[in-house]
Predict the 3D structure of the following.
Amino acid sequence: MPRLFAARLLTTCLTLSVVAACGATGGGTTAGPASGESRAGAGKITVGVAYSRGGRGDKSFNDSVGAGVDQAKAKLGVSAKELSPNAAGSDLEEVLRLLAETGHNPVLAVGFFYAQPLAKVAPAFPHTQFVIIDDATVKLPNVTNVTFREEQASYLVGAAAALKSSTGRIGFVGGVQTPPQEKFIAGYTAGARKIKPGIHISSVFLSQPPDFSGFSSPDKAQEAARGMYDDGADIVYHAAGASGLGVFQAAKAAGKWAIGVDVDQRKTVGQGLADVILTSATKQLDVAVLRIIQDAAAGKPVYGLQEFGLKEGGVGYTTTGGELGDAEPRIEELRKQIIAGEITVPVSPS
Amino acid sequence: MRAATPRPWWRRPHVVGPVLAVVAVLLAVSMVRTLTGTEALTGSGVVGATLRLAVPIGLAGLSGLWSERAGVANLGIEGMMIIGTVCGAWAGYAYGVWAGVLAGVVGGVLAGLLHAVVTVTFGVDQVVCGVAVNILAVGVARFLCVVAFNGLPGAGATQSPPVRGTIGTISLPVLAGGWGTPDLLGRLEQTHWFLLSDAGGILRGFLHDVSWFTVVAVALVLGSVLVLWHTAFGLRLRAAGEHPAAADSLGVPVQRMRYWAVLVSGGLAGLAGSYLVTVASNVYREGQTGGRGFIGLAAMIFGNWRPAGTVGGALLFGYADALQLRQSTAVHVLILLAAVLLWMAAIVGLRRRPRLSGVMALLGMTAFAVFQTTDAVPTQLVYATPYLATLLVLVTTAQRLRMPAYVGVPYRRGGA
């Protein structure tokens, strides 16, 4: 009875995934309606969300996407099924397949880890829209690739660093040296040079692929930042994920500035370290997710590469704490120039 | 025949050799620094970072040393460290930073107990069990993290909330400027004199702004030397690793000794883990150990299963890491340093081993040529420096390495 077996396996997977998702979120997610129901409910769409490793509750990447999904639920009345893969990430393909098979449309694949599984699953469901975030390599007719112009936000915080630096030396700590990460340093450098052409910028990446430990080495980030502060840098920008905490600690110890990334870290990092964060280069995953779901709900799904930059409100910088002060008008001016296309920000270091 | 009068301790070969080596390396580094103007090479900043990065590696190495000296291979150090980080972060968040340090040790001891029960009592293959401990620890850590940290502010399934409080630091008064006294070594370092400033910078790196945790770690190394080499307990423990059957026939409780060794080993690995969550950073983060348990084992092998050598190995790894993190351009200068060191070795060995000397001189020339013709080391190579350095040293010293004779062999009373 192979079919019975397959059905049982599927049910087990489903149950386990839901349990896993609940476990990771503390049981707060509302699961969408069962598959049969979603097909019956005409007009309304059921979104399937496959989170990246770590799942909801990670206070950064996944939670930003989750915020967008929550907004879509509230504003558009859509329902959503949210699943997380196992810790090893060995069931990414099954999670996608499960969501597509049970009639969810669109299916959101959160993170570039899904690129290979998605390339296998998407052709099997030609009538389902798949949305992959932070990946532009999967090019299929039913796939939407959502990417962000991180270099534009980095450009603005680079300009902010140059404006606020009194020593003429600034730094950058990256997580893993991959092309997406190089967008950060490229934009940062260009922005800082725009303000002060002769500014000294030291940069370090904590690891090289295939070693991805650079995103979870706060101790190494701390040493790298400490070295920069010792050498006279007074502002260090990090794009090192969870390692960034080390940069903030070094800034605190040295009594100098740091710049956060992805979310408004001055709000999220916690009381002790918040006051060292000058600004953060943000990436509005929620804005992008909401817009993609909105298009789909309106019956006009968009496919192909969707880039979210300053113009689309997909990236930006923060002014929490008001530390930028008199530098803000100049940064705002640059922002408008980028939106107007007067400034083109490079995506790879020169 | 000469009378066998014991030489004073400062003239014994195991003291004279390392001292000469240190002086030679210092000379070489100083030369390279003055020639290239790379002040970072012996700057107190880099040396301080070296020390901070070396502590977890050194503790992991010491952990391996305890276990292997008693004849139990411990490949599970990485896993024991992971358990140490989770437990340390949990207790550190709940009860403060020193409670975290203690909890890390307790977690490591528990993981060590598992390894001891499986390998010593049940005689399972030690390598297999070590690998199993590593795999198990990853899963257990995720589980504990979800149970203990989910829903807390700033935490999630892969990260703990920040540990409460910090461990203070100390600077040696007068020499390194502790308690508002003058910073003599710091001033010496600023003069950039040949050799003197280098020695000053290095010493200051070791004495300035040192965490109390590091002080504890150094004390543990000294304590290990004392216990393992200067007590009857230590002799028995080492006998269990060198020849368990002979030790048993003389009344040494081999199994009990091995238990003690593996428990201490687990505790030290757990301590290395708690260093990562209390001093190196203030949170637990999945994947934080980053293979340092294995690097610790490499440091132990580098150090020929001896505490001083293990510390040397850990410092070497720490130095390569620190240089790469703080001054990645300085790594290029290391090629010149290698050339100088090779030439020195060639000169020293000229009389006794002329052929080897020739090879070394040739290698030195090659290194020099590479240094002269390139401007920078490819980034991938920069990250590989610590591993290349170990490989180089292991290749050149492999002949003299001697591990405890019965490492990896389960002991059965009266068995074959």
Q: What stands out?
A: Strands of chain B lie at 169-170, 210-211.
